[in-house]
Design a protein that fits this description.
15 helices, 45% helix, alpha/beta, 357 residues, TIM Barrel
Amino acid sequence: MPESGQTSRRKGEHLEIVLNKAVQFREKTTGLEDVQFKEIELPYNALPGIDKKEISLAANFLGKKFNAPLMVSGMTGGIKEAQKVNLDIAKACQELGLGMGVGSQRAMIEHPELTETYYVRDVAPGIFLAGNIGVAQLAEYSVKEIRDAVDGIKADALAIHLNAAQEAVQKEGDTDFKNSLLYIKKVVRALKKPVYVKEVGNGITFEAAKKIAATGVKAIDVQGAGGTTWVGVEAYRGNGEIAATFWDVGIPTTVSVLECRKAFKGPIIASGGIRSGMDAAKCLMLGADICAMAYPVLQAQSKGGAEGVKKFLQKTSEELRTAMFLVGAKNLKELKKKKPVLKGKTLDWARQRKLVK
């Protein structure tokens, strides 16, 4: 168990580093640049046959309705500064009918007085809300403690995050992942609310997704490489030489979506470096069901509060609607039938891994 206050201090350092340091992948990209719309590439559909104003972005995820297939990934909590961040994001998501997650609730479990830094139901009573705990912490806490943490913020689901790369280079990291699948299965069986698994920026392979699927989780969030690298974040906190070696480790978002889609029949969340509605459209065409973002939302909140988050998410939704119009898809079901053209490293990866013919 971490010494008192250590987890909260780390949360504060993480938030400051992500906002003020260069923590994006340096060489590896999401792979989204390798995905082109078939109609745009060969060429775009000049006669989409639909009215853009009538396009529906409506989506469903784990029993909740979304006005668009977008959610904000869990980022923070456990420190005073996090309270405003989470509340601003929640306000925007409530207004727009989108979902969100909170950051790791480890600090809240250790110090229940920090619950208010995660609690957003006062301003967002109707949105999909996901709690969050790390897989390495499942061995530390009882199922009751985890259940209480989820119920304590009135979350609709629990996200269990996988962060082996981050823990491996973190100066106080937890690196015992021996029984992770058993612990995930135990939590899935014990909680009455849906449980899903998410990476934190390094992606999930077909092989890992198959094992995750066997635990009974309801969804997988790929959170692939190409966006924020938490290995890079930890490099600024210490152990920099080791972290620098693994700065770009991971599986790009595009191929991680393809890998997980082949292995898992449930909902797939595409995340990791998604910065626009065009990015979201590509991931949906690759097989994702909804898309999640963190870094650009945090930057929008830092600059403009709840209104800044709202404007960014509105822009992203409109970009997605425009992309759907340009390929002639009047809803998400039709969009997912459109086949994107793959090229470059993404195509090479997909062929070698037999993800495409």
